[in-house]
Design brief:
Layout lengths: L8 H4 L10 H5 L8 E5 L11 E5 L59 E6 L2 E5 L5 H22 L6 E6 L1 H12 L10 E5 L7 E5 L12 H29 L6 H14 L3 H21 L5 H4 L4 H4 L3 H20 L6 H6 L4 H17 L3 H32 L7 H16 L8 H22 L3 H29 L18
Parallel strand pairs: 4-5, 5-7
Antiparallel strand pairs: 1-3, 2-6, 3-4, 6-7
Helix pairs in contact: 3-5, 5-6, 6-10, 7-10, 10-12, 13-14, 13-15, 13-16, 14-15, 15-16
Length: about 500
Protein backbone atom coordinates (compact mmCIF):
# COMPACT_ATOMS: atom_id res chain seq x y z
CA UNK A 1 0.00 0.00 0.00
CA UNK A 2 1.42 3.41 -0.94
CA UNK A 3 1.38 5.71 2.09
CA UNK A 4 0.55 9.37 1.56
CA UNK A 5 1.80 12.07 3.88
CA UNK A 6 -0.29 15.22 4.33
CA UNK A 7 1.62 18.41 4.82
CA UNK A 8 0.55 21.22 7.10
CA UNK A 9 0.25 24.67 5.63
CA UNK A 10 2.73 25.98 8.10
CA UNK A 11 5.34 23.84 6.40
CA UNK A 12 4.69 25.57 3.10
CA UNK A 13 4.31 29.12 4.28
CA UNK A 14 7.53 31.08 4.60
CA UNK A 15 7.64 34.03 6.93
CA UNK A 16 8.55 37.05 4.86
CA UNK A 17 11.64 38.96 5.93
CA UNK A 18 10.75 42.41 7.13
CA UNK A 19 12.41 44.93 4.87
CA UNK A 20 14.01 47.75 6.70
CA UNK A 21 12.19 50.96 5.99
CA UNK A 22 14.44 53.76 7.00
CA UNK A 23 13.30 57.20 7.84
CA UNK A 24 15.92 58.73 5.62
CA UNK A 25 14.69 57.21 2.37
CA UNK A 26 11.21 58.59 2.93
CA UNK A 27 12.30 61.87 4.36
CA UNK A 28 14.99 62.74 1.82
CA UNK A 29 12.63 62.08 -1.09
CA UNK A 30 11.52 65.66 -1.14
CA UNK A 31 12.92 68.98 -0.07
CA UNK A 32 11.13 71.61 1.90
CA UNK A 33 9.94 74.10 -0.70
CA UNK A 34 8.03 76.11 1.90
CA UNK A 35 10.95 77.05 4.08
CA UNK A 36 11.63 80.71 4.64
CA UNK A 37 15.18 81.65 5.58
CA UNK A 38 14.10 83.02 8.90
CA UNK A 39 16.23 82.17 11.90
CA UNK A 40 14.11 82.08 15.02
CA UNK A 41 15.04 81.00 18.54
CA UNK A 42 13.49 78.97 21.32
CA UNK A 43 14.33 80.43 24.69
CA UNK A 44 14.12 78.71 28.01
CA UNK A 45 11.35 80.23 30.10
CA UNK A 46 12.28 79.40 33.67
CA UNK A 47 9.12 79.17 35.67
CA UNK A 48 8.50 81.80 38.31
CA UNK A 49 5.18 80.20 39.29
CA UNK A 50 3.58 76.82 38.60
CA UNK A 51 2.52 76.78 34.94
CA UNK A 52 -0.66 75.44 33.45
CA UNK A 53 0.42 72.45 31.39
CA UNK A 54 -0.92 69.40 29.67
CA UNK A 55 1.47 66.49 29.34
CA UNK A 56 0.81 63.55 27.06
CA UNK A 57 1.99 60.04 27.82
CA UNK A 58 0.30 58.00 25.06
CA UNK A 59 -0.88 54.44 25.78
CA UNK A 60 -1.85 52.71 22.60
CA UNK A 61 1.52 51.49 21.42
CA UNK A 62 4.86 50.43 22.95
CA UNK A 63 6.43 53.34 21.10
CA UNK A 64 4.93 55.92 23.39
CA UNK A 65 3.99 54.25 26.68
CA UNK A 66 6.19 52.08 28.89
CA UNK A 67 3.92 49.09 29.30
CA UNK A 68 6.16 46.42 27.80
CA UNK A 69 9.90 45.98 27.94
CA UNK A 70 10.24 45.81 24.18
CA UNK A 71 8.37 47.50 21.31
CA UNK A 72 8.95 44.57 18.98
CA UNK A 73 6.02 42.39 17.89
CA UNK A 74 5.60 39.34 20.10
CA UNK A 75 4.12 36.22 18.57
CA UNK A 76 0.82 35.06 20.05
CA UNK A 77 -1.20 31.88 19.78
CA UNK A 78 -3.45 33.53 17.22
CA UNK A 79 -2.13 33.97 13.65
CA UNK A 80 -2.17 37.76 13.54
CA UNK A 81 -0.61 39.37 10.50
CA UNK A 82 -0.47 43.15 10.65
CA UNK A 83 0.86 44.76 7.47
CA UNK A 84 2.17 48.29 7.65
CA UNK A 85 -0.39 50.71 6.24
CA UNK A 86 1.24 53.62 4.48
CA UNK A 87 -0.51 56.63 3.04
CA UNK A 88 0.15 57.85 -0.50
CA UNK A 89 2.29 60.99 -0.77
CA UNK A 90 0.16 64.01 0.11
CA UNK A 91 -0.49 66.68 -2.52
CA UNK A 92 1.74 69.72 -2.61
CA UNK A 93 0.91 72.41 -0.06
CA UNK A 94 0.41 75.96 -1.31
CA UNK A 95 2.50 78.56 0.36
CA UNK A 96 0.53 80.79 2.72
CA UNK A 97 1.37 84.45 2.96
CA UNK A 98 1.06 85.77 6.48
CA UNK A 99 3.00 88.14 8.74
CA UNK A 100 6.04 86.72 10.44
CA UNK A 101 5.21 86.00 14.11
CA UNK A 102 7.45 87.52 16.75
CA UNK A 103 10.35 85.53 18.14
CA UNK A 104 9.59 84.33 21.70
CA UNK A 105 10.88 86.77 24.25
CA UNK A 106 13.45 85.40 26.72
CA UNK A 107 12.33 85.53 30.32
CA UNK A 108 15.37 83.80 31.75
CA UNK A 109 18.91 84.88 32.38
CA UNK A 110 20.04 81.50 31.04
CA UNK A 111 18.39 81.18 27.62
CA UNK A 112 18.97 78.09 25.48
CA UNK A 113 19.06 79.16 21.85
CA UNK A 114 18.36 76.96 18.84
CA UNK A 115 18.59 78.15 15.23
CA UNK A 116 15.22 77.24 13.71
CA UNK A 117 13.43 77.67 10.41
CA UNK A 118 9.84 78.87 10.26
CA UNK A 119 7.11 77.39 8.05
CA UNK A 120 3.77 79.20 7.90
CA UNK A 121 0.55 77.60 6.74
CA UNK A 122 -2.15 80.13 7.46
CA UNK A 123 -2.71 80.01 11.22
CA UNK A 124 -0.28 77.14 11.71
CA UNK A 125 3.29 78.20 12.45
CA UNK A 126 5.90 75.45 12.57
CA UNK A 127 9.40 76.00 13.92
CA UNK A 128 11.93 73.32 13.07
CA UNK A 129 15.61 72.72 12.42
CA UNK A 130 16.85 73.20 8.87
CA UNK A 131 17.44 69.47 8.30
CA UNK A 132 13.89 68.46 9.25
CA UNK A 133 12.44 66.41 6.36
CA UNK A 134 9.75 68.21 4.39
CA UNK A 135 7.51 65.14 4.50
CA UNK A 136 7.34 65.23 8.31
CA UNK A 137 6.31 68.89 8.25
CA UNK A 138 3.67 67.97 5.68
CA UNK A 139 2.27 65.27 7.99
CA UNK A 140 2.02 67.89 10.72
CA UNK A 141 0.19 70.33 8.46
CA UNK A 142 -2.28 67.68 7.26
CA UNK A 143 -2.95 66.61 10.83
CA UNK A 144 -3.61 70.20 11.85
CA UNK A 145 -6.17 70.57 9.08
CA UNK A 146 -7.91 67.30 10.01
CA UNK A 147 -8.00 68.03 13.74
CA UNK A 148 -9.29 71.53 13.16
CA UNK A 149 -12.28 70.18 11.23
CA UNK A 150 -12.93 67.21 13.52
CA UNK A 151 -12.75 69.30 16.68
CA UNK A 152 -15.27 71.79 15.33
CA UNK A 153 -17.67 69.08 14.18
CA UNK A 154 -17.33 66.90 17.29
CA UNK A 155 -17.01 69.39 20.14
CA UNK A 156 -17.77 72.82 18.72
CA UNK A 157 -14.31 73.89 19.94
CA UNK A 158 -12.25 76.01 17.56
CA UNK A 159 -8.56 75.43 16.97
CA UNK A 160 -7.29 78.84 15.99
CA UNK A 161 -3.69 79.83 15.51
CA UNK A 162 -1.29 77.08 16.56
CA UNK A 163 2.44 77.31 17.14
CA UNK A 164 4.28 74.00 16.98
CA UNK A 165 7.96 73.28 17.59
CA UNK A 166 9.12 70.11 15.81
CA UNK A 167 12.39 69.47 17.65
CA UNK A 168 15.42 67.24 17.57
CA UNK A 169 15.66 64.83 20.47
CA UNK A 170 18.29 66.88 22.33
CA UNK A 171 16.21 70.03 21.95
CA UNK A 172 13.09 68.23 23.12
CA UNK A 173 14.89 66.92 26.22
CA UNK A 174 15.94 70.48 27.06
CA UNK A 175 12.37 71.73 26.62
CA UNK A 176 11.00 69.02 28.91
CA UNK A 177 13.57 69.79 31.56
CA UNK A 178 13.92 73.57 31.40
CA UNK A 179 10.45 74.76 30.42
CA UNK A 180 8.02 72.03 31.44
CA UNK A 181 10.02 70.71 34.35
CA UNK A 182 10.10 67.01 33.44
CA UNK A 183 13.43 65.20 33.63
CA UNK A 184 12.54 62.18 31.52
CA UNK A 185 13.83 60.67 28.33
CA UNK A 186 11.55 61.56 25.38
CA UNK A 187 10.65 57.89 24.94
CA UNK A 188 8.23 58.36 27.83
CA UNK A 189 6.39 61.17 26.13
CA UNK A 190 6.57 62.28 22.50
CA UNK A 191 4.77 65.60 22.77
CA UNK A 192 3.73 68.34 25.20
CA UNK A 193 1.11 71.10 24.99
CA UNK A 194 2.21 73.90 27.31
CA UNK A 195 1.50 77.41 28.50
CA UNK A 196 2.91 79.32 31.44
CA UNK A 197 -0.40 80.63 32.75
CA UNK A 198 -4.00 81.25 31.67
CA UNK A 199 -3.07 84.57 30.02
CA UNK A 200 -0.27 83.10 27.91
CA UNK A 201 -0.74 81.55 24.48
CA UNK A 202 -0.17 77.84 24.36
CA UNK A 203 2.44 76.09 22.24
CA UNK A 204 3.08 72.48 21.27
CA UNK A 205 6.47 70.78 21.45
CA UNK A 206 6.95 67.52 19.52
CA UNK A 207 9.93 65.20 19.40
CA UNK A 208 10.48 64.54 15.70
CA UNK A 209 12.80 61.58 16.38
CA UNK A 210 10.22 58.99 17.39
CA UNK A 211 11.47 56.54 19.98
CA UNK A 212 10.27 53.69 22.15
CA UNK A 213 10.99 51.82 25.35
CA UNK A 214 13.72 49.61 23.97
CA UNK A 215 14.65 46.33 25.55
CA UNK A 216 18.27 45.78 26.49
CA UNK A 217 18.70 43.28 23.67
CA UNK A 218 17.17 45.47 20.96
CA UNK A 219 19.72 46.06 18.21
CA UNK A 220 20.23 49.28 16.27
CA UNK A 221 19.02 47.46 13.17
CA UNK A 222 15.71 46.60 14.88
CA UNK A 223 15.33 50.15 16.14
CA UNK A 224 15.84 51.54 12.63
CA UNK A 225 13.22 49.16 11.22
CA UNK A 226 10.71 50.15 13.89
CA UNK A 227 11.35 53.87 13.47
CA UNK A 228 10.96 53.66 9.70
CA UNK A 229 7.67 51.85 10.06
CA UNK A 230 6.23 54.13 12.75
CA UNK A 231 7.55 57.66 12.20
CA UNK A 232 4.53 58.79 10.18
CA UNK A 233 1.81 57.31 12.38
CA UNK A 234 3.38 58.53 15.62
CA UNK A 235 4.05 62.01 14.24
CA UNK A 236 0.42 62.32 13.15
CA UNK A 237 -1.07 60.87 16.35
CA UNK A 238 1.10 62.91 18.71
CA UNK A 239 0.31 66.09 16.77
CA UNK A 240 -3.44 65.35 16.85
CA UNK A 241 -3.32 64.66 20.58
CA UNK A 242 -1.38 67.78 21.54
CA UNK A 243 -3.29 70.09 19.18
CA UNK A 244 -6.48 68.94 20.92
CA UNK A 245 -4.97 69.86 24.28
CA UNK A 246 -4.03 73.22 22.81
CA UNK A 247 -7.59 73.88 21.67
CA UNK A 248 -9.00 72.91 25.10
CA UNK A 249 -6.69 75.20 27.08
CA UNK A 250 -9.24 78.06 27.33
CA UNK A 251 -11.71 75.65 28.99
CA UNK A 252 -11.65 74.30 32.52
CA UNK A 253 -11.94 70.59 31.80
CA UNK A 254 -10.88 67.69 34.05
CA UNK A 255 -8.03 65.40 33.07
CA UNK A 256 -10.27 62.52 31.96
CA UNK A 257 -12.14 64.78 29.53
CA UNK A 258 -8.99 66.49 28.29
CA UNK A 259 -7.15 63.22 27.70
CA UNK A 260 -10.21 61.33 26.48
CA UNK A 261 -10.94 63.89 23.79
CA UNK A 262 -7.28 64.05 22.80
CA UNK A 263 -7.08 60.26 22.43
CA UNK A 264 -10.36 60.23 20.53
CA UNK A 265 -9.09 62.87 18.12
CA UNK A 266 -6.00 60.74 17.46
CA UNK A 267 -8.29 58.19 15.86
CA UNK A 268 -10.21 60.60 13.65
CA UNK A 269 -7.12 61.23 11.52
CA UNK A 270 -6.56 57.54 10.76
CA UNK A 271 -7.76 55.68 7.65
CA UNK A 272 -11.07 53.88 8.13
CA UNK A 273 -9.53 50.42 8.54
CA UNK A 274 -7.16 51.65 11.24
CA UNK A 275 -9.96 53.47 13.06
CA UNK A 276 -11.82 50.16 13.22
CA UNK A 277 -8.76 48.40 14.62
CA UNK A 278 -8.30 51.06 17.30
CA UNK A 279 -11.97 50.84 18.24
CA UNK A 280 -11.85 47.04 18.48
CA UNK A 281 -8.67 47.15 20.54
CA UNK A 282 -10.21 49.67 22.94
CA UNK A 283 -13.49 47.78 23.29
CA UNK A 284 -11.79 44.42 23.87
CA UNK A 285 -9.52 45.91 26.52
CA UNK A 286 -12.27 47.82 28.35
CA UNK A 287 -14.56 44.76 28.33
CA UNK A 288 -11.81 42.61 29.72
CA UNK A 289 -11.08 45.07 32.54
CA UNK A 290 -14.79 45.58 33.27
CA UNK A 291 -15.42 41.83 33.52
CA UNK A 292 -12.38 41.44 35.77
CA UNK A 293 -13.37 44.42 37.91
CA UNK A 294 -10.05 46.17 37.25
CA UNK A 295 -11.28 49.48 35.81
CA UNK A 296 -10.10 52.60 37.66
CA UNK A 297 -12.44 54.05 40.27
CA UNK A 298 -14.36 57.27 39.64
CA UNK A 299 -12.21 59.12 42.17
CA UNK A 300 -9.07 58.03 40.29
CA UNK A 301 -10.64 58.94 36.96
CA UNK A 302 -11.73 62.39 38.12
CA UNK A 303 -8.45 63.19 39.88
CA UNK A 304 -6.88 66.50 38.92
CA UNK A 305 -3.42 65.06 38.31
CA UNK A 306 -3.31 61.51 36.99
CA UNK A 307 0.45 61.22 37.02
CA UNK A 308 0.58 61.89 40.76
CA UNK A 309 -2.47 59.74 41.53
CA UNK A 310 -1.61 56.70 39.42
CA UNK A 311 0.33 54.05 41.34
CA UNK A 312 1.99 52.67 38.20
CA UNK A 313 2.06 53.09 34.44
CA UNK A 314 -0.34 50.21 33.87
CA UNK A 315 -2.92 52.02 35.98
CA UNK A 316 -2.21 55.22 34.08
CA UNK A 317 -2.80 53.38 30.81
CA UNK A 318 -6.17 52.18 32.14
CA UNK A 319 -7.15 55.78 32.90
CA UNK A 320 -6.41 56.78 29.31
CA UNK A 321 -8.41 53.83 27.97
CA UNK A 322 -11.42 54.49 30.20
CA UNK A 323 -11.46 58.19 29.30
CA UNK A 324 -11.26 57.41 25.59
CA UNK A 325 -14.04 54.86 25.93
CA UNK A 326 -16.33 57.38 27.63
CA UNK A 327 -15.82 59.90 24.82
CA UNK A 328 -16.17 57.31 22.06
CA UNK A 329 -19.34 55.85 23.56
CA UNK A 330 -20.82 59.31 24.15
CA UNK A 331 -20.18 60.17 20.50
CA UNK A 332 -21.88 57.00 19.22
CA UNK A 333 -24.77 56.46 21.65
CA UNK A 334 -27.90 58.09 20.11
CA UNK A 335 -29.56 60.81 22.14
CA UNK A 336 -26.70 61.36 24.54
CA UNK A 337 -25.19 64.75 25.32
CA UNK A 338 -22.81 66.21 22.78
CA UNK A 339 -19.12 66.48 23.47
CA UNK A 340 -19.51 70.26 23.45
CA UNK A 341 -21.89 70.08 26.42
CA UNK A 342 -19.32 68.02 28.27
CA UNK A 343 -16.64 70.64 27.58
CA UNK A 344 -18.83 73.56 28.66
CA UNK A 345 -20.14 71.81 31.76
CA UNK A 346 -18.13 68.73 32.78
CA UNK A 347 -20.16 66.16 34.75
CA UNK A 348 -19.89 65.77 38.50
CA UNK A 349 -18.51 62.61 40.06
CA UNK A 350 -21.98 61.15 40.33
CA UNK A 351 -22.93 62.07 36.76
CA UNK A 352 -19.64 60.65 35.53
CA UNK A 353 -20.35 57.36 37.29
CA UNK A 354 -23.75 57.23 35.59
CA UNK A 355 -22.05 57.79 32.23
CA UNK A 356 -19.70 54.89 32.81
CA UNK A 357 -22.37 52.50 34.08
CA UNK A 358 -25.01 53.30 31.47
CA UNK A 359 -23.53 54.86 28.36
CA UNK A 360 -20.13 53.16 28.29
CA UNK A 361 -21.37 49.76 29.45
CA UNK A 362 -24.27 49.95 27.03
CA UNK A 363 -21.81 50.68 24.24
CA UNK A 364 -19.70 47.68 25.21
CA UNK A 365 -22.55 45.26 25.82
CA UNK A 366 -23.80 45.18 22.23
CA UNK A 367 -21.11 43.60 20.03
CA UNK A 368 -20.29 45.09 16.64
CA UNK A 369 -20.56 42.85 13.55
CA UNK A 370 -16.77 42.78 13.43
CA UNK A 371 -16.68 41.56 17.04
CA UNK A 372 -19.16 38.81 16.26
CA UNK A 373 -16.87 37.84 13.41
CA UNK A 374 -13.94 37.82 15.82
CA UNK A 375 -15.79 35.36 18.06
CA UNK A 376 -16.32 33.04 15.07
CA UNK A 377 -12.72 33.53 14.02
CA UNK A 378 -11.49 32.49 17.45
CA UNK A 379 -13.82 29.49 17.43
CA UNK A 380 -12.35 28.38 14.11
CA UNK A 381 -8.82 28.99 15.43
CA UNK A 382 -9.52 26.77 18.45
CA UNK A 383 -10.79 23.93 16.27
CA UNK A 384 -7.82 24.45 13.97
CA UNK A 385 -5.54 23.85 16.94
CA UNK A 386 -7.39 20.62 17.70
CA UNK A 387 -7.17 19.49 14.07
CA UNK A 388 -3.42 20.18 14.09
CA UNK A 389 -3.00 17.50 16.73
CA UNK A 390 -4.66 15.00 14.43
CA UNK A 391 -2.62 16.17 11.46
CA UNK A 392 0.64 15.68 13.35
CA UNK A 393 -0.48 12.24 14.54
CA UNK A 394 -1.38 11.26 10.96
CA UNK A 395 1.97 12.36 9.57
CA UNK A 396 3.78 10.36 12.27
CA UNK A 397 1.87 7.27 11.16
CA UNK A 398 2.83 7.91 7.54
CA UNK A 399 6.46 8.39 8.57
CA UNK A 400 6.63 4.92 10.11
CA UNK A 401 4.75 3.52 7.08
CA UNK A 402 2.47 1.29 9.13
CA UNK A 403 -1.06 1.34 10.53
CA UNK A 404 -0.17 -1.32 13.12
CA UNK A 405 -1.42 -0.46 16.58
CA UNK A 406 -3.16 2.70 15.38
CA UNK A 407 -6.61 3.40 16.81
CA UNK A 408 -8.07 4.60 13.52
CA UNK A 409 -11.63 4.45 14.87
CA UNK A 410 -10.77 6.82 17.70
CA UNK A 411 -8.88 9.07 15.27
CA UNK A 412 -11.90 9.41 12.96
CA UNK A 413 -14.17 9.96 15.95
CA UNK A 414 -12.08 12.94 17.08
CA UNK A 415 -12.03 14.33 13.55
CA UNK A 416 -15.81 13.95 13.28
CA UNK A 417 -16.24 15.88 16.54
CA UNK A 418 -14.27 18.82 15.10
CA UNK A 419 -16.29 18.65 11.89
CA UNK A 420 -19.51 18.81 13.89
CA UNK A 421 -18.40 21.90 15.80
CA UNK A 422 -17.31 23.76 12.66
CA UNK A 423 -20.49 22.78 10.83
CA UNK A 424 -22.61 24.22 13.67
CA UNK A 425 -20.89 27.64 13.63
CA UNK A 426 -23.12 30.52 12.61
CA UNK A 427 -22.55 31.10 8.87
CA UNK A 428 -24.02 34.64 8.89
CA UNK A 429 -20.83 36.53 9.65
CA UNK A 430 -18.10 38.38 7.79
CA UNK A 431 -15.75 35.39 8.13
CA UNK A 432 -18.01 32.80 6.52
CA UNK A 433 -15.50 32.20 3.73
CA UNK A 434 -12.94 31.16 6.36
CA UNK A 435 -15.36 28.87 8.17
CA UNK A 436 -16.51 27.30 4.91
CA UNK A 437 -12.99 26.73 3.57
CA UNK A 438 -11.81 25.24 6.86
CA UNK A 439 -14.84 22.94 6.85
CA UNK A 440 -13.98 21.77 3.32
CA UNK A 441 -10.41 21.10 4.43
CA UNK A 442 -11.61 18.93 7.33
CA UNK A 443 -13.95 16.96 5.06
CA UNK A 444 -11.20 16.37 2.49
CA UNK A 445 -8.81 15.32 5.25
CA UNK A 446 -11.31 12.75 6.53
CA UNK A 447 -11.90 11.35 3.04
CA UNK A 448 -8.15 11.03 2.46
CA UNK A 449 -7.79 8.98 5.63
CA UNK A 450 -10.86 6.90 4.78
CA UNK A 451 -9.69 6.04 1.23
CA UNK A 452 -6.24 5.03 2.44
CA UNK A 453 -7.77 2.77 5.08
CA UNK A 454 -9.81 1.18 2.28
CA UNK A 455 -6.68 0.71 0.18
CA UNK A 456 -7.87 3.03 -2.61
CA UNK A 457 -4.64 4.92 -3.20
CA UNK A 458 -5.73 6.77 -6.35
CA UNK A 459 -8.76 8.37 -4.68
CA UNK A 460 -6.66 9.05 -1.60
CA UNK A 461 -4.03 10.86 -3.68
CA UNK A 462 -6.67 12.97 -5.40
CA UNK A 463 -8.25 13.87 -2.07
CA UNK A 464 -4.84 14.60 -0.52
CA UNK A 465 -4.25 17.29 -3.16
CA UNK A 466 -7.66 18.81 -2.41
CA UNK A 467 -6.94 18.66 1.32
CA UNK A 468 -3.75 20.64 1.02
CA UNK A 469 -5.34 23.14 -1.35
CA UNK A 470 -8.21 23.86 1.07
CA UNK A 471 -5.74 24.05 3.93
CA UNK A 472 -3.60 26.71 2.28
CA UNK A 473 -6.62 28.78 1.26
CA UNK A 474 -8.09 28.53 4.75
CA UNK A 475 -4.80 29.56 6.32
CA UNK A 476 -4.57 32.61 4.07
CA UNK A 477 -8.13 33.57 5.04
CA UNK A 478 -7.28 33.04 8.69
CA UNK A 479 -4.39 35.49 8.44
CA UNK A 480 -6.47 38.09 6.60
CA UNK A 481 -9.40 37.78 9.01
CA UNK A 482 -7.15 37.99 12.05
CA UNK A 483 -5.62 41.19 10.70
CA UNK A 484 -9.08 42.68 10.19
CA UNK A 485 -10.90 41.63 13.37
CA UNK A 486 -8.34 40.76 16.03
CA UNK A 487 -6.43 43.50 17.81
CA UNK A 488 -5.88 41.20 20.77
CA UNK A 489 -5.33 37.44 21.15
CA UNK A 490 -8.27 35.02 21.19
CA UNK A 491 -8.72 35.21 24.93
CA UNK A 492 -9.96 37.68 27.50
CA UNK A 493 -13.18 39.41 26.43
CA UNK A 494 -13.45 37.75 23.01
CA UNK A 495 -16.23 35.20 23.10
CA UNK A 496 -17.36 36.07 26.61
CA UNK A 497 -20.89 36.87 27.76
CA UNK A 498 -21.04 40.60 27.15
CA UNK A 499 -24.41 40.90 28.89
CA UNK A 500 -22.60 40.50 32.22
CA UNK A 501 -21.39 44.08 31.79
CA UNK A 502 -24.88 45.40 32.42
CA UNK A 503 -25.29 43.50 35.68
Amino acid sequence: MRMLKLHHSVYRLVIATITMVTVCLCMLASSCTQEQPVEATITTLLREEPPTQTIEIPTESPSSFPITSSPLVIATKSPTATPISRRPPPPSIPKQISPLPPTPTPSSIHPILYPLVLNRYGDLHVYHSAETPAIQIRWLKETYDSVRISLKNTTGVSLDRATVYLLDEEQYVDILSEIVGIDQHPEWTQGVAYRRDSSSPGVVYINKAVSAIWGASTSEFEKNIWQGQNVESITRKVAAHELTHLALMPYEVPSWLNEGLAKYMENTILPEDLILKEKLRLRYSLRDKALQGSLPSMSQLNAKNWIIGATNYTRLASLYELSTGIIWSAAEVPGFVSAYELVIQPPSDLALEVMVSSVLNGWLTIPMPEEESAVILCTVAKQWFESDKLMYAWNEIIERNSFDGWDHAGFLQELDAILEVVDSINPETQVESLRSEFFEYLKAFRKTVFYLLQGDNDLAESMRIKTNGHLETAYSLLQTSADSYLSTPCEGSIGTNYSRLSE
